[in-house]
Amino acid sequence: MYNFAVPKLKKGNKVIIGLGDSFTQGLGAYTDATWKKHEYNIPIYTNDKKLIAEQYQGSWVNQICQTYLDDYIPVNFGQAGIGNRGALKQIYLNTRVDLSLADEVIVVYMLTGLERFDFVKKNYGAEEHYAFQTMWPNPHDPGATHPDLWQAYEKNIYSNEFMAGELILNILDAQTYCQADNYKLIITNGFDARANKDWLSKTLGSNIPILGREHKKLIDKINWNNFLYPKGHKSFLHYLLELEGMSHLGGGGWWTHYSQLTKPSEYITNCVHPTHKGQSIIAKEIYDFINAN
Fold first, then answer.
1. How far apart are the C-alpha atoms of 177 and 174, rounded to whole Å?
2. Among 202, 204, 191, 187, CA closest to 251
3. Beta-bridge partner residues of 73
4. 197-204 and 160-180 helices, crossing angle to 10°
5. C-beta of residue 85 within 8 angstroms of C-beta of residue 162
6. Are strands 117-120 and 132-135 parallel, antiparallel or unpaired?
7. Using an 8 Å Cβ cutoff, are 132 and 120 in contact?
8. With helix as H, strand as E and coil as C, how does the chain read?
9. For residue 130, is pLDDT > 90?
10. 105 has pLDDT over 70
11. What is the pLDDT of residue 61?
12. Residue ranges of domains in the chain, CATH in brackets
């Protein structure tokens, strides 16, 4: 991780950890001045460390500590483009954060697209920031980094059942990790509306061949009280769409609409991420959930 996202902890600190993808890293959460300076056109993936630092600064992880939990230290493990498997594993990989020093730890696991799948990179250790290679099941995407690999993933691995099984196991891993160290766990959705009990139940049908257990027993192992659905919405993106008067895009079309804008709207950027103000809304909802639980 970049140093500005990995603070050095002291004994007795209280910590809030953000796990997730670009919605957690803070991609797009720039100041108005920065957007204007770049003529409202900033690449989704940038190597500009000043811009990346501003992303982390504007992220909900940082804003929740600045505005609400000023006695907590923000630790942002968000990584743009990562999937749920890789996002969760950041809590193991970033050994520079000595959580044994903390008195209290809140882990917020913001789920990303269920279609993404991560595995440790072939050249693991060569990059400071990215340890995982992520696959999508769309090899014909012009942005495909490894189209042959993505094609094999689409053909041989990817399915709704695969996504459901991965989701369950990642959530149970998060639960086990946090329970072992008495950390508070909150799980929420950045933009994918499928991460919920109903979708899992419908997708897996009457049984799932994992250790011979019926799917219901497996799904019920998830502590659904840990889930934050902002104002009843299935994801934070859907909540922001409502605030923008664009709820009709929630079933699809939001990417096309916002990516065609010449500049960010109030809550969603033209790179289709929460604006700085959108991140503030996310921070407020997470804070309210912490207080209520």
1. 5
2. 191
3. 15
4. 130
5. no
6. antiparallel
7. yes
8. CCHHHCCCCCCCCEEEEEECCHHHHCCCCCCHHHHHHCCCCCCCCCCCHHHHHHHHHHCHHHHHHHHCCCCEEEEECCCCCCCHHHHHHHHHHCCCCCHHHCCEEEEEEEECCCCCEEEECCCCCCCCCCCEEEECCCCCCCCCCCHHHHHHHHHHCCCHHHHHHHHHHHHHHHHHHHHHCCCEEEEEECCCCCCCHHHHHHHHCCCCCECCECHHHHHCCCCHHHEECHHHCCCHHHHHHHHCCCHHHCCCCHHHHHHCCCCCCCCECCCCCECHHHHHHHHHHHHHHHHHC
9. no
10. yes
11. 97
12. 3-292 (3.40.50)
**How many Cβ atoms are within 10 Å of 120's Cβ, its own excluded?**
13
Collect all residues with Cβ–Cβ distance below 8 Å to 143 and sequence separation of at least 6. Answer: none
pLDDT of residue 288: 98
pLDDT of residue 161: 92
Residue 20: both structure tokens together: 């997730």
84, HSE (Cβ side, Cα atoms, 13 Å): 28
First to last CA, the chain: 30
CA distance 30 to 50: 11
Query: Residue 218 burial (CB < 10 Å; 0-12/13-18/19+)?
Result: buried
Q: In this predicted model, which residue has the larger pLDDT, 129 or 17?
A: 17
Q: How far is CA 224 from CA 55, 78, 160, in A?
A: 30, 23, 21
Number of other CB atoms surrounding residue 8 within 10 Å: 11
C-alpha distances (whole Å) from 144 to each of 114, 137, 177 are 17, 10, 33
Q: Given a cut of 60, is residue 206 above it in pLDDT? A: no
